[in-house]
Amino acid sequence: MVIAILSLALVGGGEKFMFPLNEQGFVGFVRQHQGRVAPLEREANLAWWEAATTGKEEAYARQAELQTQLETIYTDPQAFSYLKELRTRGVVKDRLLRRQLDILYLKFLGRQLDPALLKQIIAQATAAEQKFATFRGQVNGQEVTDNQIEEVLRTSVQREERKAYWLASKQVGAALAEDVVALVKLRNQAARQLGFRDFFALQLALNEQEEGWLFRLFDQLDQLTRQPFAQLKERIDAFQGQKLGVNPAELMPWDYTDRFFQEAPNLSPVDLDTPLKDRDLVALVANFFQGIGLDPQPILARSDLFERPGKNPHAFSTDIDRQGDVRILANIKPNQYWFDTMLHELGHGVYSYYLDRSLPYFLRAEAHIFATEGVAMLFGRLAQNAHFYAALGLIDRERLGDFAPVMEEKLRAQALIFSRWCQVMLRFEKGLYENPEQDLDTLWWSLVERYQGLKRPAEAPKGTWASKIHIVSAPVYYHNYCLGDLYASQLHAALVAQLFPGQDPRQVVYVNNPKVGEFFKKRVFAPGASLPWREFVRHSTGTELSPRAFAQQFLGPNPAAAHLPRR
Q1: How far apart are CA 150 and CA 148, in angstroms?
Q2: Burial of 477 (0-12, 13-18, 19+ CB in 10 A)
Q3: How far is CA 293 from the centre of its chain?
Q4: What sign has the CA pseudo-torsion 177, 178, 179, 184?
């Protein structure tokens, strides 16, 4: 039998490596590829970490250089042809090898570009991200931090102050908008070279998501949440109007409690930050994860958790090397927002840390981006659960009746508000990549009005849309947060059914139960990326991904939700 051979001239060395078009040949290819990619990924991630924690220009430059080197590996047309031919022939039979083949094929597919164009895209994205990370809005000529903006929007009853700080939060968008449009055009140019309509379509394909399925799901969510959200917003408007002394019909975007109206306000006089004042949030969160058998200390030991000048003002978790070097960046304050954020980011962190390290390198990752978001959101929701606070000793059980209904209402409101916000992000990014030359401000505000019920202020600067960092650094990603919310509800339902049968799902908070950690390790973390995401969802929750559990958890009696298909 004649075995077909494809010669691969590996970039960076003069020697030619011969990989047969069979399963054993692919094993050799993977071994060589990992040897080149793994060290570069680690160095690029470390450079990114330094850039994010210091804001140093040289760190951003080094990260861009390393990222370019890494991405250039995946531009090799011979390697891509080899992987494409292997898939066509169907000669790779081993399940784990076949999954690696699919993952590497998609990785190479997205980078079959002119290296000069790829370098240009990376440079443009890095420059925009650096500008975003180091930019500080100004109020009356004085720089203000993100935490200061959030504090004013949460607490101030002075409308002019609120307006000034809200506008300050949008100044970065005005500064970045032209740069982002230029980046969008470069991304579209790259996608069309690969045969895709635009970058939006390319990104969905690379993430194994079908556009028609995605928009059908979001249309279904729109239908399910429209009426409950409208009723909720009437209550929010009445509450904020009374608080600020303004007719609810005259409320503007700065009259809500966060910059994008993506977070739920507290509609009661109960101060939900009170149980956390003067508390060590790091210790609280660490002790919780320790109690469910997911030790966070190796993660926290490498993390950077408090704000300072030059540091990225947001929060994220990152896996440096797929070998256990997992870190969190945060800017903690002792309040509910950062309690939620730390639970969320450590949710990401333990997912990365507890991946089965015996898995092949390219499968040592989350099953899908929405899967890690779902785990993070599941833990973050505990920050809105009074029973969780009581279990941690943050509130006396005698006061449970004061906090429980308020937090439960806020959690439900959060689910509704965030679902509507995700509609804006998904549909805006689709429109952005379809036609970056259109009036993007009009597109943005039309979606904000339709899905969130907010008015466009005459004072809003051009480029308000560009003040959302994800459009720069995580393009065509945001819908995965919403999918994560759906997955989190399914995961919670599966946990309750298996470990807490018969208990009220609203009161199940996992505290000091190592079986919870074992559930996550076995059902969620262990598979890594070894299963396609549809199979993974069935494996970890027992059902297909759908809005059913989300609707049951947050929408209450809802005729439309009752008739959702099970598949």
Answers
A1: 5
A2: middle
A3: 24
A4: positive
Q: How far is CA 370 from CA 233, 467, 483, in A?
A: 27, 23, 6
> Tokens 């898939």 identify what position?
87
Is there a contact between 399 and 372 (Cβ–Cβ < 8 Å)?
Answer: no
Characterize the bridge pairing of strands 316-319 and 326-329: antiparallel
In whole angstroms, what is the distance from residue 192 CA to residue 152 CA? 44
End-to-end CA distance of the chain: give it in Å, rounded: 45
The SS3 call for residue 278 is coil
What is the token pair recorded at 69?
């080197």
Q: How far is CA 52 from CA 311, 312, 346, 519, in A?
A: 6, 5, 18, 33
User: Which neighbouring-strand residues pair with 18?
Assistant: 7
Report the greatest alpha carbon distance in the chain.
Answer: 84
Work out the burial of residue 471: count CB atoms within 10 Å of its CB; fewer than 13 is exposed, 13-18 middle, 19 or more buried.
buried
Q: How does pLDDT run across 488-517, given as a tens digit for each residue?
A: 999 999 999 999 999 999 899 999 999 999
pLDDT 10s digits, 261-317: 999 988 888 999 999 999 999 999 999 999 999 999 999 999 999 998 889 888 999
The length of the chain is 567
Amino acid residing at 285:
V
